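Lay summary. Proteins are chains of building blocks that fold into shapes, and those shapes determine what they do. In this project we predict the shape from the chain. Here is one chain we studied, written as its sequence of building blocks.
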Amino acid sequence: MKRNVHCVIMGGGRGTRLYPLTKLRCKPAVPIAGKYRLVDIPISNCINSGFNRIYLLSQFNTASLHRHVQDAYRFDRFGRGFVEILSAEQTEDGDDWYQGTADAVRRNLIHFHAHPEDVFVILSGDQLYRMDFSEMVNAHIDCGAEVTVAAKPVPLSEASGLGLLRIGNENRIIDFVEKPTDPEVISRLVPSDLKGNAEVEDRCLASMGIYVFKACAMMDALEGNATDFGKEIIPSLVSSKNLKCHVFDDYWEDIGTVRAFFEANLQLTDDKPLFDFYDEKLPIYNYPDILPTAKLVECSLKNTTVASGCRIGNSSFERCMLGIRSEVGDNCHFSNVVMMGADYQDYDDGSNDQQISIGVGDGSRIQDAIIDKNARIGENVRLSPKGVQEGWADERQNIYARDGVLVIVKNAFVESGTKIGKI
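And here is the predicted shape, written in a compact code that computers can read:
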């Protein structure tokens, strides 16, 4: 029987843990790695796995996500592939927001036109990893599973914020606990083959938030009022359905916090990054790049990535990510900075009433910071999170401190001579 594979990417809720990066956009639309968006990761994994029926469920600040998907993913009509955004909508059955991942899928079943023998791949829209979903789907079908959960071995010190599971014979899931905090419960879920020693910490299997469902099993599971897959659906099916585990032991990062986002970007500047965007066999797709090459003027770069369209003056950079159309003047010094760049080139034709151009002015020093898109930062600015309390760091709410990182928000205006933090 011919089965269709439907890939469903969850756009997430308000993205409060990623605020203020999600102040003006939803989580999947947050820029990453200089020229991509978070949503490009799961979409590219789907395409590289041979699956091109892709649905993206979202509801908050979706305008930039719509623009990006429309520009980046245009399939030819002969392949019948698509990336379709399904936002929360008013219907006869309800007019409120999605209440969780399961609720979002339930409300959109009518749009999937699925056969009971079809397969659904449920994915998160805010993770950084590279995975061949076809291997997981084929194993799911071959063993007759009704649900398969992707899981990664993680140290116990990192396990409390994740859904943990234990497997028995033939990788069947026999226990699943969502985000446990009790040490005894966590230790109970450590399998014998992941026991540590004096040098290596115990590990357990943590759900990656990636699920493969047989369509009829998913429809049955969604008949009730459960709103979330991880918290309700999966634990409730352990004793009643044939749940299997697909173990994935490679790089995977949940971009759920500002700190996680910051570190995930900076590790890409390392000589041998944990995640490699340079794999031509399994590319990460994006919109067509028609920008000019970057222009660098006698600058000093150490472990720094520079995207297209940048214009960089005589300045120094250490472990930095400079996104598309980034503009930096002379005599600046950046250390551990993720600069997202700009949505457009800021040409001065005499009609611009802004006193400060997009980018960073001469003589500025910035460290441990994220500079969101279209930010205007004047000359001789000093910015660092050291000594700054969490929350808004200025009266105009242009700069926010969170997770030990200073975030200059999208479209921010930072006056020349501004000093925040110890630097």
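What the prediction tells us: DSSP finds nine helices and 28 strands in the chain.
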